[in-house]
Design a protein that fits this description.
Layout: H1 4-18, H2 24-31, H3 58-64, H4 80-93, H5 103-112, E1 119-125, E2 134-140, E3 144-149, E4 154-158, E5 162-168, E6 171-176, H6 184-187
Antiparallel strand pairs: 1-2, 1-5, 2-3, 3-4, 5-6
């Protein structure tokens, strides 16, 4: 059994807990000759902001050598299955590459397609030593292609001042590298304009 003072203290504490937004005088006024329905106020939970995971910086990627291909992996035969997958991907993208397909439609699809696995040839260049390089694209960066040749040599070919040819199922497409200096992810959203003639 509690004494009167303890009971009074308990009631006061209970009222303050039940009606935290009201002052003592207001509570007393409500209780005077009035019926009161006590409400329960739950504490509002503060939402914690989710931290977005930060990716690696370019410097960290270089230090970790994420994009480097080990010398023992630099063999043309290893990447032939990748080329076969790429051909199937392009056929699906262009709805089969049928003979009656419109060239500008196929060209538009190829310009936005992922080129990892494609076999390309440097047909024109301001630097003669690049002309004739043929191989499978292993990596595409904003300004360069990394190509593995049939001689198992990894070549880094700049896009600038080079023209590349790409052939699939008899359809030959030409890529002007100077107008192609975009990352693959950016290229998929870009609208390319048709131009009559383009200089190196």
């Amino acid at each position: 059994p509690q004494g009167s003072e303890e009971a009074k203290a308990f009631v006061n504490a209970f009222l303050k807990r039940s009606m935290p937004k009201k002052k003592d005088e207001a509570i007393q006024d409500i209780l005077t000759r009035k019926a009161v329905v006590l409400e329960h106020y739950s504490k509002r939970k503060t939402k914690q902001k989710r931290k977005k995971p930060k990716g690696f910086t370019a410097k960290q990627r270089r230090e970790m050598r994420l994009f480097e291909i080990e010398p023992e992996q630099q063999r043309y035969a290893i990447f032939l299955p990748l080329h076969e997958l790429w051909k199937q991907y392009i056929r699906d993208l262009c709805h089969g590459l049928k003979p009656d397909a419109q060239p500008h439609m196929v060209q538009g699809k190829l310009l936005k397609a992922d080129l990892h696995g494609a076999i390309v040839t440097v047909t024109k260049s301001k630097c003669p030593s690049y002309v004739g390089i043929t191989g499978i694209i292993l990596q595409e960066f904003k300004h360069v292609f990394k190509i593995i040749t049939k001689e198992d040599k990894l070549k880094v070919v700049p896009k600038h001042n080079n023209v590349f040819s790409l052939e699939i199922d008899g359809f030959i497409s030409y890529i002007y590298g100077s107008k192609f200096q975009l990352r693959a992810s950016e290229r998929s959203a870009k609208k390319f304009k048709l131009k009559g003639s383009i200089d190196l």
